[in-house]
């Protein structure tokens, strides 16, 4: 069986969403990651990024493998997700897993949230194979729990977009979850966690990859967002949500543009390398064409996202390509998942 999940890009709410109860709007990319999983005579995990398949087995309730799970995120995720499914069902399967991805190029992450997409796809694969009857919200919690256990930080908004489609999202309390990193947490109420599915008005999207993968976990661990920055970010997220629900693309574009300035001010105060030279150039080109653009995610690399009308985005695509930027046209899937 093949299980797909999307990458993601943040429209607004980065950093602020790390504060419990604050908001973000995140949308899935049309580029995807996939997991092929089936029962087999031997459990294994394969990826184009691995020199050879990783063999593993379950002994005494734990996973034993040719590679330490602490050194491989995919294997770490398999250990937690399959371990959860084995406990819930009492079943013992041998699963052959193959990972494929359109979220990387030349061995580099494109800034589309490949780790979140991977854990989302693996969560769907494992719960299906083991026949674990989880609700969509419980699968989301299981995937976030796995991702958070590895990273030790993060809001989960990227996981939500990978699983649910475009979302208006509010994060859980990380201190609460840190003290409850156990399978039972999947079935508990998480303070602050909220995900509302969205479907956007007609808008075109375009992204520019800087060619520099950002270290998201190290960037977000260094800050504690709050105060006027987070409050202003929440207002902008609510403006964008209103625009989405009322079909007013102009409000979405205004929120995107204002989010860029709010993030830029926050980054200066916290000495975060949000926008490099190529990012600033890309945003300036977009601005000259009257198109809203900003960094998407933690910054320091990764992607620049722009939203606008179809004709405007085509002009921006030509302008970005003319200066040698790596461009992804019509990058986002802005329709609500069924």
In short:
By secondary structure, this protein is of the alpha+beta class. 40% of the residues lie in helices and 24% in strands. The radius of gyration is 20 Å and the shape is globular.
Q: What descriptive keywords fit this protein?
A:
2 domains, eight-stranded mixed β-sheet, four-stranded antiparallel β-sheet, 338 residues, alpha+beta, Ribosomal Protein S5, domain 2, globular, Alpha-Beta Plaits, single chain, 24% strand
Structure overview:
There is one protein chain. With 338 residues, the chain is α+β, with helices and mostly antiparallel strands. Helix content is 40%, strand content 24%. It folds into 2 domains: 2-197, Ribosomal Protein S5, domain 2 (2-Layer Sandwich); 204-329, GHMP kinase, C-terminal domain (Alpha-Beta Plaits). The protein has 10 helices and 14 strands. The mean pLDDT is 91.
**Rg from C-alpha positions?**
20 Å
Counting copies of identical and different chains, the oligomeric state is single chain
**How many discrete structural domains?**
2
Task: Report the mean per-residue pLDDT as an integer.
Answer: 91
Here the CATH topology of the largest domain equals Ribosomal Protein S5, domain 2
Total strand count, please?
14
How would you characterize the largest beta sheet?
8 strands, mixed
Question: Which consecutive residue ranges, at least 5 long each, have pLDDT under 50?
Answer: none
How much helical structure, as a percent, in the residues? 40-55%
CATH class of the largest domain: Alpha Beta
How far is the N terminus from the C terminus?
20 Å
Please give the count of helices. 10
Order of helices and strands: EEEEEHEEEHHHEHEEHHHHEEHE
Beta-strand percent range: 15-25%
Helix/strand structural class:
alpha+beta
């Amino acid at each position: 069986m093949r299980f797909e999940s999307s990458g993601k890009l943040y429209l607004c709410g980065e950093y602020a969403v790390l504060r419990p109860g604050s908001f973000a709007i995140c949308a899935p990319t049309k580029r995807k990651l996939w997991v092929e999983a089936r029962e087999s005579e031997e459990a294994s995990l394969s990826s184009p990024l691995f020199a050879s398949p990783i063999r593993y087995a379950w002994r005494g309730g734990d996973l034993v493998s040719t590679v330490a799970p602490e050194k491989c995120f995919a294997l770490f995720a398999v250990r937690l997700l399959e371990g959860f499914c084995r406990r819930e069902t009492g079943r013992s399967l041998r699963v052959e897993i193959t990972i494929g991805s359109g979220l990387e190029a030349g061995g580099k992450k494109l800034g589309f949230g490949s780790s979140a997409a991977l854990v989302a796809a693996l969560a769907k694969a494992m719960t299906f194979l083991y026949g674990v009857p989880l609700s969509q919200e419980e699968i989301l919690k299981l995937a976030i729990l796995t991702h958070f256990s590895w990273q030790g930080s993060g809001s989960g908004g990227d996981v939500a977009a990978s699983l649910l489609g475009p979302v208006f999202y509010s994060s859980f309390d990380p201190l609460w979850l840190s003290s409850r990193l156990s399978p039972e947490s999947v079935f508990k109420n998480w303070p602050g966690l909220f995900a509302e599915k969205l479907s956007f008005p007609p808008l075109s999207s375009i992204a520019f990859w800087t060619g520099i993968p950002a270290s998201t976990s190290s960037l977000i661990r260094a800050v504690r967002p709050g105060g006027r920055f987070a409050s202003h970010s929440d207002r902008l997220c609510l403006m964008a949500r209103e625009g989405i629900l009322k079909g007013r693309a102009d409000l979405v574009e205004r929120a995107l543009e204002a989010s860029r300035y709010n993030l830029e001010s926050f980054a200066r105060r916290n000495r975060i390398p949000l926008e490099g030279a190529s990012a600033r150039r890309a945003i300036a080109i977009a601005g000259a064409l009257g198109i809203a653009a900003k960094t998407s995610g933690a910054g320091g690399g990764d992607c620049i996202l722009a939203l606008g009308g179809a004709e405007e985005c085509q002009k921006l695509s030509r302008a970005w390509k003319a200066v040698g930027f790596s461009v992804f046209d019509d990058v986002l899937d802005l329709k609500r998942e069924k």
